[in-house]
Amino acid sequence: MKVNAFPQFFSGASALWYKLLFFNATKRAPALITVSNFSKTEILRYYRVEEASIAVIPNAWQHFEAIGADERALEKYQLTPGEYYFALSSLEPNKNVTWVAEVAARHPETVFGVAGSVNAAVFKAGPGARVAENVKLLGYVSDGEAKTLMRECKAFLFPTFYEGFGLPPLEALSAGARIVVSDTPCMHEVFGDTAAYIDPYRYDVSPFLGGTPRWHRILRWKVHLGLLMAEPHALLRDSLRR
């Protein structure tokens, strides 16, 4: 639904393609499955769909348990356990890597590690600025490396403008990290009181917030997940029978 909520993030041709794709899918599918109640609300907002035909089945985190942590990651990227903030991002505008760049520029005493398809050309604190010296652009990291980097960071940062769920912070949470996410309806629905929240449009706030012990957070999230999945799966079963 991002193409409808933030069309400025897409080229004209790309926006048209996605809008036609979603329009066709919502018209033809006997049932729709989405990953959050927020996404369900967005579907209902932009398309003429019967609410009863949409089932909500959240993403899971158990796949991350099967990934072995690569303990060489900290040495490889020259990071010290508990002394850096970590973000995993792409170049998609909604991921809002600018927030990390701006906050890093305001906190030169703190190290920020950023993995994914970001580079010095786009990771800058303002037009014409250079990447702050306290930022390490890690490039591609393996799943095992990401797991270690999440586990050992001060907090995992996810300052997104728009998400339908938000899987990376869930993976970080399962690895034992504190998570700092955007103060948006979707993030509140998915993470409840297991996250610290920031305004993705403001840089004059500190992500350096206190947290609770890691396993208390993941246990709370599991309880929260149970409430999130309270919508009966019979809805999906009945829809598929049509």
Tally of alpha and pi helices:
11
Shape: globular
What is the string of SSEs from the N terminus onward? HHEHEHHEHEEHEHEHEHH
CATH class call of the largest domain: Alpha Beta
Task: Determine Rg (CA atoms, Å).
Answer: 19 Å
The helicity comes to: 40-55%
Please describe what this structure looks like:
The chain is of the alpha/beta class and 242 residues long. It has two domains: 74 residues, no CATH class; 153 residues, Glycogen Phosphorylase B (Rossmann fold), CATH 3.40.50. 40% of the residues lie in helices and 14% in strands. The protein is built from eleven helices and eight strands. It has a six-stranded parallel sheet, with helices on both faces. It has a two-stranded parallel sheet with strand order 1-2. α8 links the parallel β6 and β7. The longest helix is centred in the first third of the chain and has 17 residues. The C terminus is likely disordered.
